[in-house]
Design goal:
Elements lengths: L1 H7 L7 H14 L6 H18 L2 H13 L6 H21 L14 H4 L2 H20 L1
Helix pairs in contact: 1-3, 2-4, 3-4, 3-5, 4-5, 4-7, 5-7
Protein name: CRAL_TRIO_N domain-containing protein
C-alpha cells in the first residue's frame, strides 16, 4: 500500500533508502509478517516499482531483507526479479565492464564481487537456477 502511495506522486526521483527502511520497520516492529496477503501485496508492489523504475539493486536488497525475516518471494516473483537483474547487467556491460564499457572494469573484479548486490545476486541466481531445473 505504501509503495502504491509513493508511486502515485510520480516523483522523478525515488528514495530507495526510505523504501528499504520502511519495509524493514514493517518487518521488524509490526505483525506484518503474520499477514500473508499483506506481505504478498507489498512484494508485488515493490517488484512492480523496481521494474518500472529499473531499480534492480533496490529489488535485490529488498529480496534479501524479506529473506532475512523469513519471508520468501513466490517463484514467479523470483523469476521477475531475475529478469530485472538481467536488464541491469546489460546496462552494466555497456557502461561498466570491459571491453566496451566506459569504466573498463572486469566483471570478476574484486570491486564488483565484494558488493552486497553481487552477493545477493548470486543467491537469487542459484534459487532461479534450481527453479528452472526442477521445472524441466
Amino acid at each position: 500500500m505504501a509503495m502504491r502511495f509513493m508511486n502515485s506522486f510520480k516523483a522523478r526521483m525515488i528514495d530507495e533508502e526510505f523504501i528499504r527502511q520502511f519495509a524493514e520497520l514493517c518487518l521488524k516492529h509490526t505483525k506484518f509478517v503474520e499477514d500473508a496477503d499483506a506481505i504478498r501485496q507489498m512484494q508485488v508492489d515493490w517488484i512492480r516499482t523496481c521494474e518500472q523504475r529499473k531499480l534492480a539493486p533496490l529489488g535485490l536488497r529488498l529480496y534479501d531483507l524479506f529473506k532475512r525475516y523469513g519471508v520468501n518471494l513466490e517463484n514467479d516473483e523470483k523469476v521477475r526479479l531475475w529478469e530485472l537483474v538481467g536488464e541491469h547487467e546489460l546496462l552494466a556491460k555497456r557502461w561498466i565492464y570491459e571491453p566496451e564499457g566506459f569504466l573498463k572494469i572486469r566483471s570478476d573484479d574484486d570491486l564488483i564481487r565484494s558488493t552486497d548486490i553481487w552477493q545477493i545476486q548470486q543467491v537469487l541466481k542459484n534459487e532461479v537456477s534450481t527453479l528452472r531445473s526442477s521445472a524441466s
